[in-house]
Amino acid sequence: MMGGFRLGQVAGIEIHIDWSLLIVFLLISASLALGLFPAWHPDWSAALSWLVALTAAVLFFGSVLAHELSHALVGRLQGIPVRRITLFVFGGVAQLEREPHAWRAELWMAIVGPATSLALALLCLLAAAAFAGDVSIDMQDPQRVFAALGVLPTLLLWLGQVNLILALFNLVPGFPLDGGRVLRAVMWGLTGNLRRATQLASAAGQGFAWLLIGLGLSMMLGARVPFFGTGPIAGLWLAFIGWFLNNAALVSYRQLLVREALEDVPVSRLMLTRFAVVPPDLTVNALVEEHVLRSDQRAFPVLDKEQLIGMVCLRDVRALDRAAWGSTCVRDIMTPLERVTWVNPGQDALEALAVLAQKDVNQVPVIENGRVRGLVRREDILKWLSLYGDGARRPADERHIT
Length: 402
Known about the structure:
Blueprint (H helix, E strand, L loop, with lengths): L3 E7 L2 E6 L2 H20 L5 H32 L4 E7 L2 E6 L6 H30 L9 H7 L2 H20 L7 H14 L2 H27 L11 H31 L4 H4 L13 H9 L6 E6 L2 E7 H5 L11 H4 L1 E2 L12 H11 L3 E6 L2 E7 H11 L7 H4 L3
Parallel strand pairs: 2-3
Antiparallel strand pairs: 1-2, 3-4, 5-6, 6-7, 8-9
């Protein structure tokens, strides 16, 4: 994702908007204002078409947010923390802190999203019919029916249709779509093996993705595909969605292998235990000459009378003007202890990896009872994954070392 901004909180869950969402927002608004609404309502002014189109786009992404919130809230009921929801170019994603612990939890979390979208579709369509009043349905002349609808029924009719499509699309049994998660839950329940279930659901997701890519390429070459139509733009967009889903299916399976490789592996098993520490009164120049250039260590605990008071790393050194290295002490550029992110020796390596990713750092200190026991580095975790990250079972004596 390309970054974005925080929109707010709903039920304690942070809502983030990715900048890529603007692409789809503009595409939806333009296609409605310049295509669909003028076709339905030739008498509407351009300003009215654009106003209704922008409102429709906002309400659509509100529907996507409701879809993702349903996942998040049911996940909480199943004991799975959810940090935030991000809306982006392909819809939205609820970011779970961990995977469901049982297949039933996975099933309920997966099915509630499409159920929410289906419920919104029915509500919108029923409301559109109610607000349409005495407009009679004539299947022989649907254009006359559309033209007779007012602004609100038109908006509700379109929103009901797209929520129905959203529900049906997510029910496709291909991971990581909701239907793929339902498939994984069922296979998990039948086999008792989460890895095997994920592998099968991921393969189904890749198959569906390649089908979309093939249909998109056919449309780009002039073929007319039922429901999707034809044309290079529509075909390119469909192929792009297929490419995204294929990558998502692959990444989802690899993430499971990473979790399996790191869960129950204590940080003490991976941490660097031979490391240099520095005093607070050491000059930055001496730090560079005596420590940074003589080892591959990138962060150094700062100890004052054997008490940890902070950490100094390469980023701190680079932020200081080189001319001031000789007159500046480590104490002046270090990160104080109260601002240092750390882990303890008994934590899972998976938790340590999450800390490294969240803080965008390459290493964190391992602290126990106020003393530095070691450093856990990104490269140490990657080394472990290179040995056990392909799904190979770890030796029993390595799974429970403390």
